[in-house]
Design brief:
This protein is α/β, with parallel strands linked by helices. It has a single domain (about 5-260), classed as Metal-dependent hydrolases (TIM Barrel, Alpha-Beta Barrel), CATH 3.20.20.140. It has 10 helices and 8 strands. An 8-stranded parallel beta sheet has the order 1-2-3-4-5-6-7-8, sandwiched between helices. Helix 8 (about 205-210) links the parallel strand 7 (about 190-195) and strand 8. The chain is globular and about 50 Å long. The two termini are about 15 Å apart.
Length: about 260
């Protein structure tokens, strides 16, 4: 069984993106043998009112009764938007969203912003994860939107310190994973899940040895990135790095336990 922990539908305003609807997402899942995808509407990265994107995703999934078991939606919430508490409650209680995605680089706030900390605490109290993406797209050929200061793994530490009992997804690890021992210990203690889509997951076996085998699982970051690289990183592990049971955990077991599926 394969579960994609990091997938999107919707549009990216500065480049053409294909295979970005629920219909095409399910078709690609069928092609590549993926059973379930955790999916976010990336329109919410750019809408002033992110809730419109969450409602779009909810309506699209509901348009086909077979999709609701295979596409598990995450809500994009902007904690510096005045109605974010209402949006979060509606997303979790009425729209059936399975988690929250935050995009501070695009919505222009710091992880230590009091509203962001409050949001993560509310998610913790509701038992849902908060997803943070180190990179959406390569910032070097970006359009007018200046997102040049991409995150490294250690840049996520402030929100984990602020809410150490929260539930965090760290996605598309495209930049450095280096950190001091204090930060490493914090991540190892925390309830953290990291996906395999990022370009800096070239040594997945080494990262599992450093952070823990239970903290990783398949993610594609599709349709922005290709669908297979995240899976090939699991397939390429040597026998001494991953037993058959560990491989199954990376394919689906770890994210199932993390999400309580």
């Amino acid at each position: 069984m394969w579960i994609d922990s990091n997938a999107y539908v919707g549009h990216w305003p500065f480049r053409q993106v294909t295979n970005n609807s629920c219909k095409s997402a399910v078709e690609r899942m069928e092609k590549f043998g993926v059973d379930i995808s955790l999916v976010t509407n990336m329109n919410g990265v750019f809408y002033k009112n992110t809730q419109a994107a969450n409602q779009e995703l909810h309506a699209e999934i509901r348009s086909n009764g077979r999709w609701k078991e295979r596409l598990l939606p995450f809500a994009v919430i902007n904690p510096i938007y005045s109605g974010w508490r209402r949006d979060m409650e509606e997303s979790l209680s009425k729209l059936g969203m399975k988690g929250i995605r935050l995009f501070p680089k695009y919505h222009r706030y710091e992880l230590t912003n009091p509203h962001c900390v409050e949001l993560v605490k509310r998610a913790r109290d509701r038992g849902v994860p908060v997803g943070l993406t180190l990179r959406m797209v390569d910032s070097r050929p970006s359009s007018w939107l200046d997102i040049t200061d991409e995150w490294t793994l250690k840049d996520i530490l402030p929100i984990i310190k602020a809410v150490p009992d929260g539930q965090f997804m760290i996605l598309n690890i495209a930049n450095s994973t280096a950190m001091e021992q204090e930060g490493l210990s914090l991540i190892k203690r925390a309830n953290v899940f990291m996906d395999t889509s990022g370009r800096n997951i070239v040594d997945l076996g080494g990262l599992m040895s450093t952070f823990g085998k239970d903290k990783f699982g398949f993610g594609s970051h599709s349709p922005i990135l290709d669908y297979r690289t995240g899976a090939l990183r699991i397939a390429a592990l040597r026998e001494e790095e991953a037993s058959p049971a560990i491989r199954q955990d990376l394919m689906s077991g770890n994210i199932m336990r993390f999400m309580r599926l």
